[in-house]
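Appendix B, example 12.
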Amino acid sequence: MDSSGLYRDITDFAHRTPTWVQSAFEEWTEYGLLLFGLLFIAVWWRSRTTQSPRAVALAVLAPLATAVAYVASEVAKSTVDEERPCRAVAGAAASLVPCPPVGDWSFPSNHAAIAGAAAVALALAVRRLALLTVPLALLMAFSRVFVGVHYPHDVATGLLLGGALAALVMVVLTGPISTITAAMRASGSRGAVWFTGPGSAS
């Protein structure tokens, strides 16, 4: 895969944007994943008030599915060993953030994989959240190219890998985790009921 040309186009565009836009992207690419973390917590807390053990299972699985996607991305990254474009692409504009050190490989993008997985997992937990999480994931992926630390094919692959693995984990494990959730609710244990919520075990 060679998306060097598109990388140059995007990084050139980044340098033509106002300073405040560059700063906003720098902040988003650095801290934007924290928003998904807050959404995980909010969705889990909301699920505790429902009668459905499945809702709790989906909420609990969302961050776990995202973690699986991150691990898979790391494995792929260490296998491919693709150099970062901020070092490898001749004639490209300087990256807006420091280029990651040698050995911190480029393909696929961990940020994009995490964002893609979180977007899909949260949307499966609460469908209407897709209207928020999908654009946020796309923005995270774009930001990694905008600031100059990833190729476009890095982030596209990261999004697809993360989203696909998250969907698989959610589909496979929702049933078993729902059963466990119902059993925890029925147990009457204070800790279990706090974690799953006091909804019906049926």
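The longest helix spans residues 152-187. The two ends are 51 Å apart (CA to CA).
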